[in-house]
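Morning F.,

Quick status update on the modeling queue. The single chain you submitted on Monday has been processed. Sequence for confirmation:
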Amino acid sequence: MQQLLEAAERIFVSLTGYTGFDLDLSEEILTVVLKSVSAEQQEGYVGLEAFAEANRERLGQLYGKYGPGPAASEPTDWARP
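Structure tokens below.
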């Protein structure tokens, strides 16, 4: 799990430049995610960094659209009907 967490952190920082994330929360979320997929599926996560690099532009666009932005009380594009 630690290697996957470190890879996810590297990807996040490389896409966003943001380093102030909550490590404890990241570990908690990853624990839940890993419980929801089989061991075989988890093995596929080894290629997470290659996937992120191959899809860097699209991931950056998605982060820009759905990442931190307007206050929670302000509607966002994805929250509009």
